[in-house]
């Protein structure tokens, strides 16, 4: 079907849709069943069997299985079967860990998927792009990623960048008119928008014609799933650490085996013991546990309204030292309300809050001025030069579109000017707002066929283009623009954002470039609007400051407005600097770097300035988090260490450039994400500390016994059981640990900090040595009292090693003392430890398992010895920070 050749009415008819109401929900559901989800075919998932078999491809596991086979051939069937079962259970645990991580990452991909603004049953709503169906009416705005093939039915300066389709990076100006030419290629179909392309300018509406693999992109198979699982910097560090640990563990294992053989132990026994020790000593489960900890942490962030698009951001969040935040919508509620008007050289107040339509227009003495000259014209023009819409849901008015435009509509409704009055003016052309122009213009045709140019925008941009003003006696020369400037300053000092509006009559048929038309304008007045700070922001800013993180406000607002808001929420301290966009233009990057640490507010800036600000902070050694929502913010977001985009107001381009998406556009969510990011990193350090200290203890107990010419305290199957029971579950539970109370009281972590920094290496070695020593002490005491009962001594040593590690796990929860935290706070850890103790008791007391694990029943006296020895490492070191 050549959709580009059809007129708008023909497209509407063929797709059986209504451009005024959109599809009904039931019809959309029916079409979804027919056409399938709007996604491109992705790579086949690895089968579950392959994932399970992958758990056994580790070199040491293969060696162990080979040794087990030899053991079986030599008649040691019980040991062989026991080791096989343990290896199988270990494989199951690894499989479930990997499955959990993959499911978490898949869920993350779904949450981070693009959305589309669709007309359904007469109301605009945002839905996941995969739910689009042919016939859906879609709204397109600058910065949106186009997520299906569409026939454009309305355009206001709409331009798209189609390099993903054509290789050509220059934007294409779109039309809504039918093209009758036959056989046009996609790049020449200027009334179509294609999946995978990008809206770079303007706005418009379109009807979806094709979805999923039926799109041009789907047919030529150029937009396949490109999401590849890449390791985070932390995972790279751990991979390098793993190589070192393998070398050390193998070296110590070889030493144990050689010394054992030299001392007369059977070669076969020492070989099997050595392989078992190597399997236990090498923390092969570490990468899986790290992935699980990261993915579960990401899920917790999602519950706090923060979507992590790149796992590396989790690690970087803990290093953030500066947050550069937008004001509107992030620090404020993004519910703009007109509170004051400047008109006829006078200032009026407007009552009512939020999107409530009740309100009055009052002068300084409280008298009603709703019949004031030019007031109706100002409010009417503000509602015409406007792309927002008012909707009613559950009895409440909501704004669909830009909040500033919404505030103008609400103000007009308060004066009794509804949408019918605005509809009497037909829009001929729109010159959209962008961050460089800082204004929006429309050419409209009125009821008497008169043409008017209406312009609204930043006062400092608009006033220089005004030669006249509208006074009580009508149009007159703008003789005293400084009076308008004084009104702007007064409004700004009250934290009001100002917007100017102006008009210009046009001769019939006159069109042209905006820059040519937007001069000699007639100034009408100023809107003074407020977007109140979010209630939770002041507390979040304070908490960030205590965490050593500087918050910087970046806004396009007037300096006085920005300063007033910054002071209200605690961003601007006494002596803190405010820098304007004009001052930024006059500074070199070197000059900016010299003062940047004293600047807390950047006002009247453009998105182009953001990149300069990011570079200046980075030059001073800061790790910078940068927020943004518009397409022009993408370069700064990409250049920052942690790019943060807005989930509600953000464009798809900005989201793709970012590593973190705020689902609620709220600054407090950034603070929560940093809090969670710090905790995830600390939890990873906790289970590294636990796993390695335990492994050191296992190796050393065998090495010390051989050096003392004693029998081996543990047999291979016991070593593997310790590895299974005490390493897996408690380590995962540590990854779920709650943050310590001072996690946001510490300074940001240095990104170059090693895994073993802050005394972690000493803690691992010291605790590991002690765990090995106390296990050996318990073994020696038991063996000397009953030299004929080697099984008895080994059972005591086995139980002591397990209990020492399970007690030590609570010491790993804090960098302070073992009693710094409530041991029952982490219920997952308590459950893991109880489960491990129960499994240990089963091996010791259940008779069918005793010959397999070389154990025997123990009495109260033995348990007093076991618990006394097991508690020693924590008792000696658990009360200090070292």
Automatic annotation (TrEMBL):
<keyword id="KW-0472">Membrane</keyword>
<keyword id="KW-1003">Cell membrane</keyword>
<feature type="transmembrane region" description="Helical">
    <location>
        <begin position="789"/>
        <end position="807"/>
    </location>
</feature>
<dbReference type="InterPro" id="IPR023298">
    <property type="entry name" value="ATPase_P-typ_TM_dom_sf"/>
</dbReference>
<dbReference type="Pfam" id="PF00690">
    <property type="entry name" value="Cation_ATPase_N"/>
</dbReference>
<feature type="transmembrane region" description="Helical">
    <location>
        <begin position="858"/>
        <end position="879"/>
    </location>
</feature>
<keyword id="KW-0813">Transport</keyword>
<dbReference type="InterPro" id="IPR006068">
    <property type="entry name" value="ATPase_P-typ_cation-transptr_C"/>
</dbReference>
<feature type="transmembrane region" description="Helical">
    <location>
        <begin position="760"/>
        <end position="783"/>
    </location>
</feature>
<dbReference type="InterPro" id="IPR050510">
    <property type="entry name" value="Cation_transp_ATPase_P-type"/>
</dbReference>
<dbReference type="Pfam" id="PF13246">
    <property type="entry name" value="Cation_ATPase"/>
</dbReference>
<feature type="transmembrane region" description="Helical">
    <location>
        <begin position="244"/>
        <end position="264"/>
    </location>
</feature>
<feature type="domain" description="Cation-transporting P-type ATPase N-terminal">
    <location>
        <begin position="2"/>
        <end position="76"/>
    </location>
</feature>
<dbReference type="InterPro" id="IPR004014">
    <property type="entry name" value="ATPase_P-typ_cation-transptr_N"/>
</dbReference>
<keyword id="KW-0812">Transmembrane</keyword>
<dbReference type="Pfam" id="PF00122">
    <property type="entry name" value="E1-E2_ATPase"/>
</dbReference>
<dbReference type="InterPro" id="IPR023214">
    <property type="entry name" value="HAD_sf"/>
</dbReference>
<keyword id="KW-0460">Magnesium</keyword>
<dbReference type="InterPro" id="IPR023299">
    <property type="entry name" value="ATPase_P-typ_cyto_dom_N"/>
</dbReference>
<dbReference type="InterPro" id="IPR008250">
    <property type="entry name" value="ATPase_P-typ_transduc_dom_A_sf"/>
</dbReference>
<dbReference type="InterPro" id="IPR044492">
    <property type="entry name" value="P_typ_ATPase_HD_dom"/>
</dbReference>
<keyword id="KW-1278">Translocase</keyword>
<keyword id="KW-1133">Transmembrane helix</keyword>
<feature type="transmembrane region" description="Helical">
    <location>
        <begin position="270"/>
        <end position="296"/>
    </location>
</feature>
<dbReference type="InterPro" id="IPR018303">
    <property type="entry name" value="ATPase_P-typ_P_site"/>
</dbReference>
<protein>
    <submittedName>
        <fullName>Calcium-translocating P-type ATPase, SERCA-type</fullName>
    </submittedName>
</protein>
<dbReference type="InterPro" id="IPR059000">
    <property type="entry name" value="ATPase_P-type_domA"/>
</dbReference>
<comment type="similarity">
    <text>Belongs to the cation transport ATPase (P-type) (TC 3.A.3) family. Type IIA subfamily.</text>
</comment>
<keyword id="KW-0597">Phosphoprotein</keyword>
<dbReference type="InterPro" id="IPR005782">
    <property type="entry name" value="P-type_ATPase_IIA"/>
</dbReference>
<feature type="transmembrane region" description="Helical">
    <location>
        <begin position="687"/>
        <end position="707"/>
    </location>
</feature>
<feature type="transmembrane region" description="Helical">
    <location>
        <begin position="80"/>
        <end position="97"/>
    </location>
</feature>
<keyword id="KW-0406">Ion transport</keyword>
<dbReference type="InterPro" id="IPR001757">
    <property type="entry name" value="P_typ_ATPase"/>
</dbReference>
<dbReference type="InterPro" id="IPR036412">
    <property type="entry name" value="HAD-like_sf"/>
</dbReference>
<dbReference type="Pfam" id="PF00689">
    <property type="entry name" value="Cation_ATPase_C"/>
</dbReference>
<keyword id="KW-0067">ATP-binding</keyword>
<keyword id="KW-0547">Nucleotide-binding</keyword>
<feature type="transmembrane region" description="Helical">
    <location>
        <begin position="827"/>
        <end position="846"/>
    </location>
</feature>
